[in-house]
Amino acid sequence: MKCCLAIDIGQDSIDSALVTEQILEDRQHYDLPAEGHDDALEQQLKDIFKHYKGMFDAVAVVSDNTKNGPLSALNPDKPAGLAAFPLEHTLNQCNYHHPVGILTRLQATTFAQYRLNAPQEVKNFAYIDVDHAVGGGLVLSRELQIGSKGIAGHIGHTLADPNGPTCECGRRGCVDAMASANAMVHFANMQGAQSAVEDIFAQYQQGDSEAVAMLKRSAQVIANLVADLVVVDDVERVALGGSVGLSQGYLDLVKEYLDAQPHFYHCDVVKSAPVQDERLLGAALWLSENLAK
């Protein structure tokens, strides 16, 4: 494949670029209005294809609107956002001749982290994004896992505590509901603190006992998730990202809890490395490799 058009669709904006090998050119950014979102998104996609007409050989699209809607839409009480947007149909209307690949945003990030930062000998890799929510992706036998529904790698929705709080997906006790920044705010509010995420981080750095307990609980949940990935999928390396995952001292806490487990649950756990435009690049690299097979 000579050149890939990569498109990253967010909730309120779209980024696009032409990607040849690992070089991005003609990068564009477009804001989407809050009202009339579906119509604006459809028109913007048409405009993007018009802008790059005749300049690409394949299209890699990154969106949390997977083939069957985003995972958050599994909860009928939660607004589905763009879950009903006909993404594949719109792409087929805009693009008549070139192959198209669709990834979630975290799947694309995972592949960028794996291809550009993991040692060559690593075959099984996981990326865990610990931010306002917990998500990630999996590479097994050097292949990014996507699944027939496009939701493979939603590791934040594995079970951490069956008696824990209800997750936004509707299930009780997900990793996301126990270890994310939003989960910390939830626990703080339950204690009457009314703290924001920034407050909890600041209090943690100052040694506040309740904030320290929240970060430790989060790190322990993530360490258990890592151990599960090791024993189920033989994951050899895990990269942590996100505002919580990259916060000072958090990686050390995760390693401490992981090291306390039996040795066959251990693996290499590192901070994710910065990659410019990693979603656009990761999606393009993934599609390029799959088309070359």
Structural summary, described in words:
There is one protein chain. It is built from ten helices and ten strands. It is of the alpha/beta class and 293 residues long. The strands form two sheets. The chain has a five-stranded mixed β-sheet with strand order 3-2-1-4-5. A five-stranded mixed β-sheet has the order 8-7-6-9-10, with helices on both faces. A hairpin with a 2-residue loop joins strand 7 and strand 8 (143-144). Helix 6 crosses helix 7 and helix 7 packs across helix 9 (250-259).
Write the layout of secondary structure elements.
Layout: E1 4-9, E2 13-20, E3 23-31, H1 37-51, E4 58-63, H2 87-94, E5 100-103, H3 105-117, E6 125-130, E7 134-140, E8 143-144, H4 175-179, H5 181-190, H6 197-205, H7 209-233, E9 237-241, H8 242-245, H9 250-259, E10 268-271, H10 278-291
Parallel strand pairs: 1-4, 4-5, 6-9, 9-10
Antiparallel strand pairs: 1-2, 2-3, 6-7, 7-8
Helix pairs in contact: 1-2, 3-10, 6-7, 7-9
> Can you list the strand order of the major beta sheet?
3-2-1-4-5
Sheet of most strands: 5 strands, mixed
Compute the CA-based radius of gyration.
Answer: 20 Å
Per DSSP, the total helix count is 10
Unreliable residue stretches? 68-81
How far is the first residue's CA from the last residue's CA?
Answer: 11 Å
**Element string (H = helix, E = strand):** EEEHEHEHEEEHHHHEHHEH
What's the count of strands? 10
What is the mean predicted local confidence, pLDDT?
Answer: 89
Helix residue percentage: 25-40%
Structural class: alpha/beta
The outline comes out as globular
Strand content: 15-25%
